[in-house]
Amino acid sequence: MANEENQNQNNSGDNDDLALQAPDENELEQDSAKQEEKNGEEKGEENVIIAKSKMALIKKLLNNIKENNDRLTQLLSGYLSAEEETSIGIGQITDENFGASEQEQDGSKVIEGVFDGENMIGPDGKQYSVPANYASKSKLVEGDILKLTITANGTFIFKQIGPIERSRVIATVERAGEGNFIAAAGGKKWRLLTASITYYRGEPGDEVVILTPKAGESQWAAVENVVKKPFV
Question: Was domain 166-227 assigned CATH 2.40.50.140?
Answer without folding.
Answer: yes
